[in-house]
Design goal:
This protein is an alpha+beta fold and 392 residues long. The protein is built from twelve helices and eleven strands. Residues 1-15 and 17-78 have low confidence and may be disordered.
């Protein structure tokens, strides 16, 4: 299953520039109505799995657009593996910063330590949506989907509808007193791991582009009109997911939504479903602006003796306004790719992509400033300047 046709199909099918309004916001940093009786003695894990897949495939059959956008087919995976340790920064991405199999980390500006990538930038069931309700799905739709133009609206519905139908089926089944506890266990297992599976799929789709960039090849981002090219779409989608999936952005969005966040049963769970929606809107906007030559992709080369560092918010907007209580209206995405190479997507093409020590330090400062808890390097000396000192 490949994640294809997202931005390219939107681009061919119609104008989705309504997502510009979403970009401005984010830069601030069927079951019928009649109840059916269910024979509880005949309900088991297999039947529930069939019900879930039936609801999802019905959703696909109702929309040719969703059929072409393959991502929601991920939700057909029912008997998934339990993965409690869920990362919000991809372990594979961090490999260039490893030395002898370990990362050098600065935690909370206090402690420099060496760690395996498995133990950092992760949290137990970070992508859990087990507490999500039908009311939450309705509110998500009202706030973030209903006002979007077609075909983007149908694409976004493709993220919510399968979850909503799964919840409807579970509610229907659970009303029968004879339902076995395994039904509840299956539902919990699915909703604790479903989005972890999604992020793993997005990472798999983005790996070709990431490896090319780390090797110094940026050409695929300029060949987006070729029909056989897919790395550009997949990488921009991967980059957008990495921007939104972190703990830092989760906190920032909750603060930006203010009183709206309290209307959800669990904003922590709700945000995990918002990530695919936000990433689709944001990524399409960035992709379109690159195609319209409103944004340019620059591969920065480190020509100094200081390494590029990265953090638990590895994709940052370097135009973010920190010094004044004002909205950020500009966009320049910075993404370190390794200690020697970084990607900068900005409004102008850079002639000199070789970075001096001063420039590397400037980019490193931005990563350190926008990190929540952790910054990473392959040498402790690159992190020492960011250790908090009371006398400083």
């Amino acid at each position: 299953m490949r994640v294809l046709n997202l931005f390219r199909y939107c681009h061919m099918a119609g104008d989705c520039r309504g997502s510009d309004a979403f970009l401005s916001f984010m830069l601030i940093s069927s079951i019928g109505n009649r109840e059916r009786k269910v024979d509880g003695a005949r309900i088991n894990r297999t039947i529930l799995a069939i019900c879930i897949v039936f609801a999802i495939t019905q959703n696909h059959n109702n929309s040719s657009l969703i059929c072409r956008f393959r991502v929601p087919l991920l939700f057909e995976e029912v008997n998934m593996e339990n993965k409690p340790n869920q990362h919000y920064v991809w372990q594979k991405y961090l490999e260039p910063w490893k030395k002898n199999g370990k990362l050098v980390c600065l935690r909370n500006k206090k402690d420099i330590l060496r760690s395996n990538s498995r133990n950092v930038a992760s949290q137990r069931y970070f992508y859990n949506i087990n507490n999500l309700t039908l009311n939450d799905c309705n509110l998500i739709r009202r706030l973030f989907i209903n006002n979007q133009p077609e075909p983007m609206k149908k694409l976004l519905e493709g993220w919510v509808n399968p979850i909503e139908q799964l919840l409807q089926i579970y509610d229907l089944v659970s009303k029968n007193r004879k339902v076995d506890d395994s039904i509840k266990a299956l539902k919990e297992l699915t909703l604790k791991n479903l989005l972890e599976e999604l992020h793993m799929e997005i990472e798999t789709e983005g790996i070709e582009g990431l490896l090319k960039l780390q090797a110094g090849d940026i050409s695929f981002l300029f060949e987006s009109d070729k029909e056989d090219m897919t790395e550009d779409v997949e990488f921009i989608l991967y980059l957008s997911f990495q921007y939104f999936r972190t703990k830092k952005i989760k906190q920032s969005v909750e603060e930006a939504l203010r009183e709206y966040a309290s209307h959800f049963t669990s904003f922590d769970n709700t945000f995990n479903l918002l990530v695919p929606i936000f990433s689709t809107l944001f990524g399409y906007n960035v992709f379109e602006r690159i195609k319209r030559k409103e944004l340019y992709c620059n591969l920065l080369e480190n020509a100094s003796d200081i390494s590029f560092i990265t953090g638990d918010q590895p994709v940052v907007n370097i135009d973010a306004n920190f010094d004044a209580n004002q909205e950020t209206t500009d966009l320049s995405l910075y993404y370190p790719l390794s200690p020697t190479v970084s990607l900068l997507i900005t409004r102008s093409q850079i002639d000199d992509v070789k970075c001096s020590s001063e420039k590397v330090k400037e980019y490193n400062d931005m990563i350190a400033r926008q990190a929540l808890e952790l910054i990473f390097a392959n040498d402790a000396s690159d992190l020492t300047p960011y250790v908090y000192r009371e006398d400083a």
